[in-house]
Design goal:
Double Stranded RNA Binding Domain, three-stranded antiparallel beta sheet
Length: 77
């Protein structure tokens, strides 16, 4: 068994709940009413996505060597 690392981005939706996207896995998007539910749904979606890649003999991308930094800037607009 191999371990993979992925970023999951959560966006709060105006109508409520959170959309979860996985940038390294194009099209891997899900939704949850709460942050915890969105993360649980993302884990399930990632697992299914990886299963599909393996079934089709495609490489499984990973973010284990990716560094991320968030910047906050004040900009006059």
């Amino acid at each position: 068994m191999k371990q993979f690392t992925y970023r999951v981005l959560l966006n709060r939706e105006p109508e409520g709940g959170y959309t979860a996207t996985v940038p390294t896995l194009p099209g891997c998007i899900t939704y949850g009413e709460t942050v915890d539910e969105a993360i649980a749904m993302a884990k399930e979606a990632i697992g299914l996505y990886i299963e599909s890649l393996v079934a089709h003999n495609e490489p499984v991308p990973d973010e284990s060597n990716t560094l991320e930094y968030a910047l906050t800037l004040e900009v006059a607009v």
